[in-house]
Design brief:
Blueprint: H1 2-7, H2 17-24, H3 32-51, H4 55-76, H5 80-92
Helix pairs in contact: 3-4, 3-5, 4-5
Length: about 90
């Protein structure tokens, strides 16, 4: 169990501690309100990415849009595990 936990990706680049906690925890341990707040912060980050002039972010934008869209659809369909996976994918790009 400890070895597997050590191999899980760390999201140290995520500044918001609540969001980082959601991303690093297991989906069944995340409350629905936390998942909604994490999605809101993800969509805010996506909005900032679209107005930023960074070419690296611009190249990754289609993947990030797809991941954010998948997270939003999953959360509205009451599928927290799928939403959690999409959020992790968004923040790992």
């Amino acid at each position: 169990m400890t070895a597997r936990r050590a191999q899980s990706p760390k999201f140290t680049h995520v500044a918001n501690l609540m969001l980082r906690g959601v991303l690093e925890s297991r989906p069944q341990h995340v409350r629905a309100a936390e998942m909604r707040q994490a999605l809101r912060r993800t969509l805010d980050a996506l909005r900032r990415d679209t107005i930023n002039d960074d070419p690296a972010l611009y190249r990754a934008l289609p993947e990030r849009v797809e991941a954010a869209h998948a997270a939003e659809i999953a959360l509205s369909s009451d599928r927290p595990a799928v939403c959690h996976r999409a959020l992790r994918r968004f923040w790992s790009i």
